[in-house]
From TrEMBL:
Full protein name: Mycothiol-dependent maleylpyruvate isomerase metal-binding domain-containing protein
InterPro entries: DinB/YfiT-like (IPR034660), Maleyloyr_isom (IPR017517), MDMPI_metal-binding (IPR024344)
Pfam families: MDMPI_N
Signal sequence interval, chain numbering: none
Domain Mycothiol-dependent maleylpyruvate isomerase metal-binding, chain residue ranges per copy: 10-158
Organismal lineage: Bacteria, Bacillati, Actinomycetota, Actinomycetes, Kitasatosporales
Transmembrane regions listed in the UniProt entry: none
GO MF annotations, alphabetized: metal ion binding
Length: 227
């Protein structure tokens, strides 16, 4: 997926998430989410931490070539082990707790994604980065994983806050292309679900019965592992 398109999806989805959490009361920031044990505060911290890896990745030496794409980034290895998941949970909680209020966290999230967006727009289309897990990836492919995180966890936040999903058209299309491959969006529409419902079902956030599972698999779904 071309870098310009992924960046636009990232900008729009991160911007919607920023607007959604701006002005939340402290009670709303403390609401539980279905991503246990995270609260709304912790989950926003988690999305922010994932985006904040990019500046140091861009400051580091570029690998000679990309070896992993966005789908392979989510492979079920040590990065999703109980030990790594526990560290991921603690890192998000620590970051959230480091802010005096939810408003301060919202401001930090907005500043972080805007900085990353600006930095990435200055990079070449073929820029390769190395992730904290050691993967050599095209910047566009790693950015796509950040779109996945913002989009899917945006669904979790909307659920926790009792709101309709704010998933943007651009982010939804980018994530579906990752899961189904290019040119397969019409097949997804045949299921009769909107994009937020489809993403909720294929990421375990909503139930799939046997018939629905077969229908999804017929589309050639790439099942990804999420922490």
């Amino acid at each position: 997926m071309e870098q310009r398109r992924v960046l636009e999806a990232f900008r729009l989805e991160a911007g919607e998430l920023s607007r959604a959490v701006a002005g939340l009361s402290e009670a709303e920031w403390d609401r539980p989410t279905r991503c246990e044990p995270w609260s709304v505060r912790d989950l926003v911290g988690h999305v922010r931490v994932g985006i904040a890896w990019l500046p140091r990745m861009l400051d580091g030496p570029a690998p000679d070539r990309a070896e992993v794409g966005a789908a392979e980034y989510y492979r079920p290895d040590d990065r999703f082990s109980p030990r790594t998941n526990a560290a991921r949970i603690g890192l998000a909680q620590d970051h959230a707790a480091g802010h005096a209020s939810g408003a301060a966290l919202a401001e930090d999230f907005a500043a972080t994604w805007q900085q990353v967006d600006q930095m990435c727009r200055a990079e070449a289309e073929d820029r390769v980065v190395r992730t904290r897990h050691g993967d050599a990836m095209l910047l566009s492919e790693f950015l796509l994983t950040r779109v996945v995180e913002a989009a899917v966890h945006g669904l979790d936040l909307a659920d926790a806050l009792g709101r309709e999903p704010w998933l943007t058209t651009e982010a939804g299309a980018a994530v579906l292309e990752l899961l189904l491959g290019p040119g397969r969006l019409d097949g997804a529409r045949e299921l009769g679900w909107d994009v937020p419902t489809l993403l909720a079902k294929v990421t375990g956030r909503a139930a799939l019965d046997a018939t629905e599972t077969a229908q999804v698999e017929q589309l050639g779904m790439r099942w990804i592992t999420l922490g």
